[in-house]
């Protein structure tokens, strides 16, 4: 899928998803410290995010601080999802300990990917039963939250230093740059990305 197709496909979903989360955005503007995740949960979720969106031009969802975005969602509009996140993080860390590691974040990347692929396929053997949420539903949710945190405007807590936008070559919201000139529309002058200012 080309970048333009990706942005067109998910653009309306981003707008709707982010517009419905004003409290999370406000919390992210005030602080980047964890609100509902403890240090171990933050570390695990950061590793999950980094595997869901691996490095694109050297920037992954971990570097974009998507975990901060998710923490703010879970503290506010998406707080009903917090138990599922805590359960999933606990299950992933327990699996890592059975493999001889401290936690999920300490696993080698290929093993992290394998665990997440199993989770996505509903085949993660460390998933508790009965569970607060089915494996595939949780994976879909954390993937969506990670993508939002990677590409949303930084005021929502992710996309730190515009890194997500730099990774995909998105110039930024044109209205934040004062719009564009007729010359830029015609292609006579380049559009300078927001992250070059």
Textual characterization of the structure:
With 197 residues, this protein is mainly α. It has one domain (11-171). The protein contains 9 helices and no strands. It has helices spanning 3-19, 22-30, 39-52, 66-75, 82-98, 109-120, 135-151, 163-168, 182-186. Helix 3 (39-52) packs across helix 6 and helix 4 (66-75) crosses helix 7. The chain starts with a helix and ends in an 11-residue tail after the last helix.
Structure characteristics:
197 residues, mainly alpha, 9 helices, globular
Helix content: 40-55%
Order of helices and strands: HHHHHHHHH
* Number of helical stretches of at least 4 residues: 9
Q: Give the overall pLDDT as a whole number.
A: 81
| Spatial separation of the terminal alpha carbons | 29 Å
Radius of gyration over all CA atoms, rounded: 18 Å
User: How large is the share of residues in beta strands?
Assistant: under 5%
Provide a compact summary of the structure.
Helix content is 54%, strand content 0%. The chain is mostly helical and 197 residues long. It has one domain (11-171).
Write the layout of secondary structure elements.
Layout lengths: L2 H17 L2 H9 L8 H14 L13 H10 L6 H17 L10 H12 L14 H17 L11 H6 L13 H5 L11
Helix pairs in contact: 2-4, 3-4, 3-6, 4-7
């Amino acid at each position: 899928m080309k970048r333009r197709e990706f942005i067109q496909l998910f653009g309306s979903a981003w707008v709707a998803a982010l517009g419905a989360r004003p409290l999370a955005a406000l919390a992210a503007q005030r602080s980047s410290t964890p609100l509902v995740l403890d240090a171990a949960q933050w570390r695990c979720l950061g590793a999950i995010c980094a595997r869901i969106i691996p490095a694109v031009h050297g920037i992954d969802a971990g570097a974009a601080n998507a975990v901060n975005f998710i923490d703010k969602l879970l503290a506010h509009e998406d707080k009903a999802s917090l138990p599922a996140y805590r359960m999933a993080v606990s299950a992933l860390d327990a699996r890592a300990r059975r493999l001889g590691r401290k936690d999920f974040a300490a696993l080698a990347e290929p093993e992290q990917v394998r665990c997440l692929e199993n989770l996505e396929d509903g085949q993660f053997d460390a998933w508790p039963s009965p569970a607060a949420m089915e494996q595939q539903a949780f994976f879909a949710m954390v993937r969506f939250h990670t993508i939002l945190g990677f590409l949303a405007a930084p005021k929502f807590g992710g996309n730190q230093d515009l890194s997500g936008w730099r990774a995909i070559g998105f110039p930024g919201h044109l209205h934040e740059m004062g719009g564009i000139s007729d010359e830029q529309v015609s292609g006579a002058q380049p559009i300078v990305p927001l992250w070059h200012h």
